Amino acid sequence: MLDVQVIDDPTAATVALEPMRSRLLSEMAEPASAAALASRVGLARQKVNYHLHALEKHGLVRLASERKWGGLTERLLVASAASYVVSPSAMGPVAVDRNRELDRLSASYLIALGARVVREVGDLIRRAMEAGKRLATLAVDTEIRFRSPAERAAFTNELTEAITKLVSKYHDASAPGGRAHRLVVVAHPLPQQSDPKEPS
Questions:
Q1: pTM of the entire structure?
Q2: Which of 84, 115, 130 is the last residue before a domain boundary?
Q3: Is position 127 within any domain?
């Protein structure tokens, strides 16, 4: 089972987002039969089978094993991933595109960059799996609380200078056998946590 599966097919996204099918996916971390799932979600087994067929057709669940019960064969299915992300490419021509005219300091541009990361890395993971290889990536995630807007601006300038220096040191456009990598650095305010009500 994958940790995360990126869904880039519009039809598969529609199948996965249907509420009952989404619920079934959440119930299938371990192999389960249609009968077992039916009792968990409160649907008739035939209806569960209908949903499972759609999920299996789009690669969202897979056959884990089969077991014989008298003259019948019971299929046990399992989710193909622990969690799923819908790629912006599933939206087709209306998908967000960072190549469109966007203010590079806007939240829209940041979202477009995030969408591109999902689309590109999702495709790279799929190719790596097909080739039986691991995908080398790097991610840094941290929080920083600035004392003032002036310090936030100073940090931005220093970070930009440091990245520019590192890129100029290690980038070699003509290196034989080299491979280009994408570096994206983003910063955004953390969502405000609602304050718990004071005891009266």
A1: 0.72
A2: 84
A3: yes
Q: Is residue 40 in a domain? A: yes
List, in sequence order, every residue forming a beta bridge with 139; answer none if it has no partner.
Answer: none
Closest listed residue to residue 4, CA positions, set 104, 124, 174: 124
Report pLDDT digits (tens) over 21-59. Answer: 999 999 999 999 999 999 999 999 999 999 999 999 999
Tell me the C-alpha distance between 55 and 58, whole Å: 5
Look at phi and psi of residue 121 and say left if phi exceeds 0, alpha if psi is from -120 to 50, else beta.
Answer: alpha
Model pLDDT for residues 138-167, shown as the tens digit of each residue: 999 999 999 999 999 999 999 999 999 999
β-pairing, 2-7 vs 61-69, is unpaired
Residue 177 lies in a domain: no
34 with 93, same domain: the answer is: no
**What are the CA-CA distances from residue 165 to residues 77, 162, 185 (Å)?**
51, 5, 15
DSSP secondary-structure letter at 39? Answer: H
Half-sphere exposure of 26 (CA within 13 A, CB side): 9
Do residues 117 and 91 both lie within one domain? yes
**Domain residues for 123?**
87-167
